[in-house]
UniProtKB/TrEMBL annotation:
Coiled coil: none
Gene that encodes the chain: proC
The UniProt record lists the keyword Cytoplasm: yes
Keyword Cytoplasm (UniProt): yes
Organism: Prauserella marina
Record protein name field: Pyrroline-5-carboxylate reductase
InterPro entries linked to this entry: 6-PGluconate_DH-like_C_sf (IPR008927), NAD(P)-bd_dom_sf (IPR036291), P5C_Rdtase_cat_N (IPR028939), P5CR-like_CS (IPR053790), P5CR_dimer (IPR029036), Pyrroline-COOH_reductase (IPR000304)
Protein family according to the UniProt entry: Belongs to the pyrroline-5-carboxylate reductase family.
PANTHER family, sorted: PYRROLINE-5-CARBOXYLATE REDUCTASE (PTHR11645), PYRROLINE-5-CARBOXYLATE REDUCTASE 3 (PTHR11645:SF0)
């Protein structure tokens, strides 16, 4: 894998650095870029990884992980264009940005792999979907898969599916957090102290997620196992259906997909 440089040390960038170190990478094999000096000093002190400018990262690294916000991609590509080429592997963690954008702006033959991770990367439980660009080979994909395996699970998908992945798993943790927030509020409404309601719901979420991850039964079966005839759960499910929760969730994920498409189209003429 050689030297890895993370361009943009926000939460996802930091999580990747941390995961790589936990996975056995030496700090001397890692670099990062960061616009804010105080943030650079903080991360170097925490992980022992050196902060560099984009030009030095491009010169020294074999793998360049672009982890900036989509709206900040233009200056990064402008800096990288004269510095990279077919010997560099560019890995994009930017939501909505297609590999074609990088291929237009970087020298011909530069391999690019598009990745949609999510924030559970900070606890090494990310779900990352990877897609190769025009010049990326099976070996390039293997490098990216090995890198991301340090922080969670990885699946390869056609790039045409990446906007759907962004809406489903990229934004997915926020939907769960939103649901947990609402359930805690419900517990308070029913008279429970906030701390007790939070403990009840968070542990229920952890247990349910473990059953889904480790079990062999479909979510419908798991839900039905909790739903006794004329019991409390079926009455709750009836209210969820009456208020269109399922339809609202479908519409929300569709809207997230549409926004991911828009982010990519914003750069089509670049």
């Amino acid at each position: 894998m050689g030297t890895i440089a993370v361009l943009g040390a926000g939460k996802i960038g930091e999580a990747l650095l941390s995961g790589l170190l936990q996975g056995g990478r030496d700090a001397g094999e890692l670099l990062f870029t960061e616009r804010h000096p105080e943030r650079s000093a903080e991360l170097t002190g925490r992980y022992g990884v050196r902060a560099v400018e984009v030009a030095e990262a491009a010169e020294a690294a074999d793998v360049l992980v672009v982890a900036v916000k989509p709206q900040d991609i233009e200056p990064v590509l402008t800096e990288l264009a004269p510095l990279v080429g077919p010997s560099s592997l560019v890995v994009s963690l930017c939501a909505g940005l297609p590999t074609a954008l990088y291929e237009r702006r970087l020298p011909e033959g530069t391999p690019v792999v598009r990745v949609m991770p999510n924030t559970p990367m900070v606890v090494n439980e990310a779900m990352s979907a990877i897609s190769p660009g025009k010049y990326a080979t099976a070996d390039h994909l293997k490098v990216v898969e090995e890198m991301l395996a340090c922080v969670g699970k990885v699946v390869e998908v056609p790039e045409t599916h990446q906007d759907a992945v962004t809406a489903l798993s990229g934004s997915g943790p926020a939907y769960f957090f939103f649901l947990v927030e609402a359930m805690i509020d419900a517990g308070i409404l029913l008279g429970l102290p906030r701390a007790v309601a939070e403990q009840l719901i968070v542990q229920s979420a952890v247990g349910a997620a473990k059953m889904l991850a480790e079990g062999t039964e479909h979510p419908v079966i798991l839900r039905e196992n909790v739903t006794s005839p004329a019991g409390t759960t079926i009455n709750a499910i009836r209210e969820l259906e009456k208020h269109g929760v399922r339809a609202a969730l479908l519409a929300a994920i569709e809207a997230a997909r549409d926004r991911s498409v828009q982010l990519g189209k914003a750069h089509e003429q670049d």
